[in-house]
Amino acid sequence: MKTVLTKTTYLEMRAPRQTDSSPPADARSAGFRVENWHPLEVARYRWLYNSVGGDWNWGDRNRMAEHELAAILADPLVEVHVLHVDGEPAGFAELDRRQPNEVELAYFGLFPAFIGRGLGKAF
Questions:
Q1: Which parts of the chain fold into alpha helices (H)?
Q2: What is the pTM of this model?
Q3: Which of 19, 25, 61, 116 has its CA 20 to 30 A from that of 5?
Q4: C-alpha distances in angstroms, 115 versus 19, 52, 73, 98?
């Protein structure tokens, strides 16, 4: 079996950012919309996860047992927000609020066709 080295990077934000977070003009005109997908079934989540993370070798949620992932997704303190552009899913962000006084951005990314369009800045 081939081994792939994985590097995980964490960012801690201690204060709100001081920059403009409004969507770029082309995103606003393209029907930029974010939806909270809760409840979310495992198969649909894995489709999002693999669509965004496949090219980046994301794998930990694929190795997780289905019942474990289902329990995480069912938790009201875990939110999966899906970016839509012109009604089409374009990316997702997963927020984990299970630790008191913390919000972890567990996963964040765009589908390959939407990378490079400035959509991640506002999303």
A1: 25-29, 42-53, 60-63, 66-74, 119-122
A2: 0.83
A3: 116
A4: 21, 10, 26, 30
Please answer whether residues 85 and 30 qualify as being in contact, where contact means their C-beta atoms are separated by less than 8 angstroms. Answer: yes
Q: 63 burial class (0-12, 13-18, 19+ CB within 10 angstroms)?
A: exposed
d(CA 109, CA 94): 10
What CATH number has the domain bearing residue 77? 3.40.630.30
Higher confidence at residue 24 or residue 120?
Answer: 120
Q: How far apart are CA 36 and CA 112, in angstroms?
A: 21
Residue 11 lies in a domain: no
